[in-house]
Amino acid sequence: MKLVITMSRRYGTGASRIAQELSERLGIPVYDKVNVEEEMSSHTYDSEVEVIKKLAEKPCIILGRCASEILKDRRNAFNIYVCADKEDRVRRIMGKENLSREEAERKIEKTDQERAEYYYEHTGKTWGDVNNYHMILNTSDLGVENCADILMKYFERKEYI
């Protein structure tokens, strides 16, 4: 199966690390907002939807951009939502971006709000609704470093890879 993984995530959950690890193990690219915008500007696509559908013609991982909703009818798309406890997210962002606790908290709130608004504006649905995903990973419970292993085992058992 030409597996396409979509990954929605709260800010500061470590989802980008999980995606990178999966990318290396599966030998498939990861696309995020920057990549989608670059594709739009360098080709004649009219929308992000067109870009995402084109990227999903081959195995890949797509972070955000409402890809879970755009690709919901594709049998080869596996939609993941990554969350974590707020305190873990705050600590991760403080360390990663060298921010104070207050700055990290504000950035998390702002980024999550922007993502929720973007998702609703483009899909009419609530961001993070469990009904929109095949699997939800809580990195506070599972550990960021274990999530790629969990996903790989799942994909192997389901014979997706």
Describe this structure in words.
The protein is an alpha/beta fold. It has one domain: Rossmann fold (3-Layer(aba) Sandwich). 54% of the residues lie in helices and 14% in strands. The protein has a five-stranded parallel beta sheet. Helix 1 packs across helix 8 and helix 5 crosses helix 6. The protein is globular, with a radius of gyration of 16 Å. The N and C termini lie close together (7 Å).
Task: Briefly characterize the structure.
With 161 residues, the chain is of the alpha/beta class. The chain is built from eight helices and five strands.
Net shape: globular
H/I helix tally: 8
Neighbour order of strands in the largest sheet: 2-3-1-4-5
CATH class: Alpha Beta
Kindly identify the CATH topology.
Rossmann fold
User: Rg, please?
Assistant: 16 Å
Q: Strand tally, please?
A: 5
Q: Structural class, please? A: alpha/beta
Compute the separation of the termini in Å: 7 Å
How many distinct folded domains?
1
Task: Assign a percent range to the helix content.
Answer: 40-55%
Main β-sheet, in a few words?
Answer: 5 strands, parallel
Low-confidence region ranges: none
Please state the average pLDDT score: 95
Question: What string gives the helices and strands in order?
Answer: EHEHHEHEHHEHH
CATH superfamily: P-loop containing nucleotide triphosphate hydrolases
Note the main attributes of this structure.
alpha/beta, 5 strands
Question: What's the layout of helices and strands?
Answer:
Elements: E1 4-9, H1 15-26, E2 30-31, H2 33-42, H3 48-55, E3 60-63, H4 67-70, E4 77-83, H5 86-97, H6 101-123, E5 135-138, H7 139-142, H8 144-157
Parallel strand pairs: 1-3, 1-4, 2-3, 4-5
